[in-house]
Amino acid sequence: MKAIQFTGPGRFEIVDVPIPEIFDDEVLVDVKVCNTCTQWDITVWRAIDIFERKGHPQYPLPPGATGHELAGVVVKTGKNVTRLKESDHVALWGTPPGVGRPREQGGYAQYFAGHERSFVPYPKDFPLEQAALTEIFTCLTAAIFKAGEVVGKRVAVSGLGPAGLIAVQALKARGADQVIAFDIAPERLELARSLGADTVMIPGSDEWFELTPRERNVDIAIDCIGVAESVNKLMQVTRDHLIIFGVAHGPITFGTDAWRKGLKLEANGPRPEKGAYYARHMLTSGQVRVDKFISARLPLEEYATGVQLLIEKKAIKVAFDPWA
After folding, report:
1. Which of 23, 89, 90, 170 has its CA 20 to 30 A from that of 114?
2. How far apart are the first and last CA of the chain?
3. Alpha carbon 249 to chain centroid, angstroms
4. What is the bridge-based pairing of β-strands 294-299 and 317-321?
């Protein structure tokens, strides 16, 4: 099969590798689309490890890495598989703890093998490039579930990448009285507004300083950036609960003011399996729309073009077709 392989910073090759053999509890998926994961793709391209691990990235990366937001069609099932069957349309969401065996492969390839519980089935009439957002949505559900009851509350989302735009819609659908969306890119703010945000704002703008202290405060916030400056500023205006979804970078300071008002600061945490089915429900019901997220559709050979679109913020997601 054909796959991408990173050979060094800013370098990749299209390689021919064997189609993965499946174990008895696994399925083989014909990958129809693998979407970019913005920060992961950009950082690996630049030889930076998103999790700040020493000695990473280690080139060459396994074939198919760093792709992990994929969807496709089941073409083979192991003898112990009971949840899925051949011809099912599925999206990868992750793997429950203690299930399956680690594999050195990624989704930027024509085939992908994994435990049957790593995938969630989709109706065959639902677009696979949208189903491929199940993985990032499932990661985000950890924060959404931790936010708890939002009915009648003011909530904020900082950072309007794919996760932030999903969070805006999910929180609104869960009954938030007001959803305030923050980003520095005006075009992302307008997209958030079109997807249901009640207020959109550039942090520190004149519009922001025109608000009264009461108007600035929110009950609950989800930070989808992770950069310390973003989290620290969001702590100043969040009364009750702040969840950090973005990978944390830099010194985050929980000071006296946060302690005095009883602010709960919490990390996103592991993605829950039930989150994959919640994500599917929200996507297929139309309560969360991601049809505007796919900014370009490219073959694997044009991976560098796709990454550049992400770097220049000309794309929210780039969908790669391994068979193009």
Report:
1. 170
2. 13
3. 17
4. parallel
Cα–Cα distance measured from residue 270 to residue 141, given in angstroms and rounded to the nearest whole number: 10
66: left (phi over 0), alpha (psi -120 to 50) or beta: alpha
Cβ-Cβ contacts under 8 Å for 252 (sequence gap 6 or more): 228, 231, 232, 244, 265
DSSP class of residue 22 equals: P
Under 8 Å between Cβ of 132 and 290: no
Burial of 286 (0-12, 13-18, 19+ CB in 10 A): exposed
- Confidence tier at 274 by pLDDT (50, 70, 90): very high
**Pairing of the two strands 238-244 and 264-267:** parallel
Q: Which of 223, 203, 202, 207 is nearest to 155 (CA)?
A: 223
Q: Looking at the DSSP assignment, which residues form a beta bridge with residue 156?
A: 180, 221
Give φ, ψ of 71 to 5 degrees.
-145, 150
What would the pLDDT profile of 29-44 be if each residue is shown by its tens digit? Answer: 999 999 999 999 999 9
Q: What is the C-alpha to C-alpha distance for residues 113 and 121, in angstroms, rounded to an integer?
A: 15
Average pLDDT over every residue of 244-268: 96
Q: Which residues pair with 227 in a beta bridge?
A: 249
188: tokens are 């992302």
Predicted TM-score (pTM) of the model is: 0.95
Q: Which two tokens stand for residue 321?
A: 């077709």
Tell me how far apart the alpha carbons of residues 51 and 59 are, in angstroms, rounded to a whole number.
Answer: 16
Q: Please, what's the b/e burial string for 228-257 (b: 16 or more CB within 10 A of its CB; e: otherwise)?
A: eebbbbbbebbebbbbbbbbbbeebeeeee
26's tokens: 């696994």
User: Do 167 and 184 contact (CB within 8 A), yes or no?
Assistant: no
Minimal CA–CA distance to 128: which of 149, 139, 112? 112
Which domains are present in the chain?
2-133+293-321 (3.90.180.10), 140-267 (3.40.50.720)
Lookup: tokens for 130: 């949208």
